[in-house]
Structure formats: C-alpha cells, structure tokens
C-alpha cells in the first residue's frame, strides 16, 4: 500500500506539470499572412479593438470583432536609394533588402511612430488614428532618420518602449546602446563600454507613487567575457534608468546619469545547473503603487526552458543597497543611480557621475523568489513568450494568471501563487505550427492577442464555456476568471470590478474543492450505452477520451472487476490481450479528480461465434468519433 501511495503521489505531481485541459480553438478570429511576410512587431492600445502588426513593407491595422477580423494595409516600401544601396553591397542578403517594420509605438493620443529597417537604412514615419501616414503641406510623407530608433536588419534583436511621448530604444548592433532616441526630452544614450555584445529582449516602465521616481527597465543577454570552460558564455542582465534623467551637467552630458545594471540568474546560488539565457520578460506592475513582479523565461545550455519570478520591490532594494562591482572606495551620500530631477539640489555631482561612468554594474546577483524556477513549469514544452494578468476571484481576492507561448504555437494558461502553480489549459488557436512570437494582454477589454510568423489571433481571457455546463466541471477548472453562476446555472465570467457582487458564484481555486458544489443540481447527460458485438478472436480496443489530464481514469467491468488501460495523451484505452482477456459484459470508464467522479463512456460487449469481417474498420470509425467528441 505504501508503494501504491507513492506511485499515486508521483502520478499526481507529474499530472500537475501538464495542462489539465487541451483546447483547439478553430473559431477564434484570426488573420493569416503570406509566407515571407513574417510579422515581427505587434502593438495594441488598451481598450481598443485594433491591433497594429508590422510586416514586410507594410503596417497591418487589424480590427477585431467577436466573429472575424478586418484588415487595413498601410503600405511602406523601402526607399529606392536605400534599396539600391542594399542590393549593391557585396554579400548583402537580398531577402533582407526590404522595409521590415520593427517599431510600432504610440507617442500620444493622435500619433503612432512606425520604424522600419528600410533595406539597412532605418527610417521612421508617423501614423494617424485614421490609419493614414502623416504628410507635410506639399503632400509628402513626413519621415525621420531611424538609425538610433530601429534595427537596420530584421534579424537584429531590439526592444523599444514609449513613455510620455518619448521613445526609448535598445539596439543590439555593432555597438549596443540603450537610448532615449526620440521625443521632447533630452536624447541620451549609454556609454560604449557599458554594454558589450548584447541581445535585447524587452523593456518595461515601472511606475512609482512619486512620478519623479518612475524607472524604465531593459532586459537583455550579454556575452560573458569572464566565462571559463565550464561556465555559461551568456549572462542575463537587467538595466535601468530614471525617467527624469537629463544627463550630467559637467560629465556624462549626453549620456545617462542614472544607468545601473545587474546580473539576473534563474536558479539556486548553489546549483550549477541554472537557466542563464533570457528568452522573454514581462513586468506586472501594481499601477501607480510601485512594486510588481517580473516574470522571465530562461533557457539552459541543454535547451530546456523555465520560468523565474522576481519581486520588483526586492530588485529595487538591491539596486539601492548593493555595492558597485569593482568600486571599493566610500560611497558618496548621494548614491549613484538615484532618481532625482535635473534641477534638484541633490542632482548628482561630478564625483558621483564619475563613479557611474566607471562602475555601472552592481555587485549583488539577483536571484528569483524562492531561489529557484517555478517547478511545475519545468516541462517538456519550450516557452517563448510570457504575459501576466492580475485577476479578482468571486471573493474579490487577487490571483496571478500567466499566459505562456510555446515553440509549437500553443498557449498555456497558468494559475500561479499561494504555493501552487497549475497549468489550467493548453490552447491551440493556430492552423500552422510555429513559435509564438508575440503576446499582448488587454485586461480592460478581457482579450489576449497572440502572433506567430504566419498568423495573428485574439482570445478571450474568460472562456468559461470551455468548462461545460456543470458546477463540478466549472469549479475543478480552477480558473479565477470563471465561476458557477447559481442564478443562470452555467459557468460564467466573474466580475473583475473590485467589490462587485459575486455572491451568487461558486468557485474554489485550491485543490481541496471540498463540497463547493454540494447540493447543486447538475443537468448531467447520461452516457448512452454503446452496444458492441464481436468475434472472440477479433482484435478490439475501447477508447475513453481524456477530458481532464489531471484526473485518474479507471475501467470497470460489471461494476466490480477493474481493467488496466493505456494512456496515450488523448485516451485511456482498454486493450484486450494476454493480461486482459476479452470478456463480455458492461465496461465503464470513469474519471476521478479532487473527489469528483464522472462517467466518461460505457460499452456493452457481447461475444458471438459469427465472423464480423468489417469489425476492425467499424471500431476504427467508432474510436475516431468518440475521440472527437
């Protein structure tokens, strides 16, 4: 019994590391692109029904409805001179001598800046709300040099963010830079020696209670120059600057006066097998309250990925208190990197700026919460993108839901927090298998936008109809967006406004669901008895489709004898053979999860002596039909 208990515990732990449910979403509104279009940049205004997608020689403005997506194409080909110069260069990759749109950022309520590679000579234009490019009085397109705003080639990593009308660009070029590259504020950049061979991943604004303390973070990988033979050649870094930074007065006049950077590690300090390379990063902030959480996807040298979480309060504390790497003198009273207005009497002195200039890296390494990755998300899936949402459940308690894109075009919906990490569901919204290249979550409208190099789609955050029309199936989903509506007797979206009345919703996000649905009359359809008459010498198997991948499935004959089954990812299949001789009777397949038992399918098997030559074909059709239900 002890061995059996250990086996069941192991199976339970393994089950938690796979999605509980798997959905194919063929009806989600989506748009496909031609091969070679390769949409790379996507942008969305919160509360809008539109998505801006940057492709080859065009910006696609997509307007979504519940059933379809409409497209307006704003053409932006490469300029003739740039195209000619690109194609004349020796060894130039002709396929990259195009204008690939890499930057789409809203500057203000009426203008969006759009930057493209322009055949190796980056250029930027301005898009109005009526989906037209801005022109001057002579009817000519208004454009500016985009050398410091956009990468020159589609394969070059970059990260951009617009804050209060200013564009910040992090470019992974021959000389990597983090710049305030466009806008009314003074244009600033990093010193050449501060960054070396970087691969920029993303950028984020972290608002604070005091606006003058707002910070902008950049996440990137950097070549580890000091790596030994057994060490990682790449290290993940986090860099930050202050929004109020206006450069120094006597030193670093055109450079950041508040730039600091730190090493970011996904793993335990004592464990040599860490995840070093950053693949994506997302900051879920607390609005204007400061704080928030950083969620990062990291990969290891052996190709697996993991998710690590970091408290931004703790990150800020480390930036404020850590020693600076290589600096051994007494730290000045005004600590280097402190956010203060340029005109403040506490603005950094020349001595403070000289420290930043020579020692911009803090000494302390930043490790994740718990000093380890989220265990349940160390799966066989390779993650590529991450976004997060803060969700109110039926009792107005706050929960975190992660959406993780995979290299197979799937999206994992994950409940994370309070000591548990549960993969609620795996969604398959795309027709073609390709890595998820972009995710944008709009909590105000309740939608998730996702893209690959071939397709773009929109998915509802609260897709409660997937959990079927019974209380137990709704509650067992452990989806904080959804609860059992007692009045309407269906699984419905929980109100996301604080203090909203949700007393008529039944919900439990913990494994011990207990008697949440006790006394609720569910309209459960009784499984139809499938009668099968076969020859004793025939080869036959009975499928039982997996509805929840966290449940335990059993086959029972005539309510007494148990039969083993083969799990293949889609079905718990009863195969008759030497260990399970075929016998006639009533065979039921049931699923048990968190104390709830559900009958999945039932067969009445009769043996006869007649030969049934078409039986294998009949069973094949029967199996396919059942698996598709």
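^ Assign residues to that structure.
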């Amino acid at each position: 019994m002890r061995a059996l208990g250990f086996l069941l515990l192991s199976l339970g732990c393994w089950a938690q590391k796979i999605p509980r449910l798997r959905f194919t979403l063929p009806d989600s509104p989506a748009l496909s692109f031609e091969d070679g279009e390769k949409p790379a940049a996507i942008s969305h205004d919160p509360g809008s029904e539109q998505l801006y997608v940057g492709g080859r020689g065009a910006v696609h403005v997509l307007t979504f409805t519940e059933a379809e997506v409409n497209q307006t194409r704003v053409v932006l080909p490469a300029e003739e001179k740039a195209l000619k110069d690109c194609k004349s260069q020796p060894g130039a990759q002709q396929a990259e001598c195009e204008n690939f749109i890499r930057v789409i950022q809203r500057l203000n309520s009426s203008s969006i800046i759009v930057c493209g590679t322009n055949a190796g000579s980056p250029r930027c234009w301005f898009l109005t709300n009526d989906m037209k490019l801005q022109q001057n009085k002579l009817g000519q397109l208004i454009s500016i040099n985009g050398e410091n705003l956009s990468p020159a080639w589609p394969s070059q990593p970059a990260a951009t963010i617009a804050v209060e009308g200013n564009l910040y660009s992090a470019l992974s070029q021959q000389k990597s830079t983090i710049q305030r590259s466009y806008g009314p504020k003074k244009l600033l950049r990093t010193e050449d020696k501060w960054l070396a061979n970087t691969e920029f991943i993303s950028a984020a604004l972290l608002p604070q209670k005091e606006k003058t303390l707002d910070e902008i973070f950049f996440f990137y990988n950097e070549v580890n120059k000091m790596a030994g033979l057994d060490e990682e050649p790449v290290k993940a870094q986090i860099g930050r600057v202050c929004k109020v930074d206006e450069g120094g007065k006597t030193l670093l006049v055109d450079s950041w006066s508040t730039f600091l950077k730190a090493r970011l590690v996904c793993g335990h300090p004592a464990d040599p097998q860490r995840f070093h390379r950053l693949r994506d990063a997302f900051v879920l902030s607390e609005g204007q309250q400061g704080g928030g959480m950083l969620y990062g996807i990291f990969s290891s040298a052996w190709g697996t990925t993991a998710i690590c979480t970091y408290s931004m309060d703790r990150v800020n504390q480390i930036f404020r208190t850590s020693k600076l790497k290589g600096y051994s003198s007494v730290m000045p009273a005004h600590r280097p990197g402190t956010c203060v207005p340029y005109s403040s009497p506490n603005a950094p002195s020349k001595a403070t700026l000289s420290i930043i200039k020579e020692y911009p890296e803090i000494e302390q390494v930043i490790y994740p919460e718990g000093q380890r990755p989220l265990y349940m998300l160390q799966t066989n899936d390779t993650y590529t993108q991450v976004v997060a949402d803060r969700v109110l459940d039926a009792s107005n308690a706050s929960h975190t839901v992660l959406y993780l894109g995979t290299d197979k075009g799937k999206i994992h919906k994950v409940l994370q927090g309070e000591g548990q990490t549960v993969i609620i569901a795996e969604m398959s919204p795309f027709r073609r298998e390709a890595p998820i290249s972009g995710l944008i979550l709009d909590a105000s409208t309740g939608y998730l936008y996702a893209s690959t190099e071939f397709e773009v789609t929109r998915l509802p955050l609260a897709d409660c109809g997937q959990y079927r029309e019974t209380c137990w199936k709704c509650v067992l989903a452990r989806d904080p967006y959804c609860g059992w509506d007692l009045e309407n007797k269906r699984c419905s979206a929980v109100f996301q406004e604080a203090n909203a009345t949700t007393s008529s919703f039944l919900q439990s996000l913990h494994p011990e669901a207990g008697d949440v649905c006790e006394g609720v009359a569910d309209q459960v359809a009784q499984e139809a008895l499938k009668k099968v008459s076969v020859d004793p010498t025939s080869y036959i198997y009975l499928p039982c489709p997996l509805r929840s991948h966290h449940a335990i499935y059993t086959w029972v004959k005539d309510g007494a004898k148990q039969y083993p089954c083969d799990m293949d990812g889609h079905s718990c299949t009863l195969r008759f053979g030497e260990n399970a001789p075929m016998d006639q009777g009533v065979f039921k397949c049931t699923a048990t999860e968190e104390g709830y038992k559900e009958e999945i399918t039932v067969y009445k098997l009769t043996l006869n002596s007649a030969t049934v030559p078409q039986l294998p074909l009949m069973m094949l059709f029967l199996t396919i039909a059942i698996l598709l239900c």
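Residues 371 and 604 are 54 Å apart (CA to CA).
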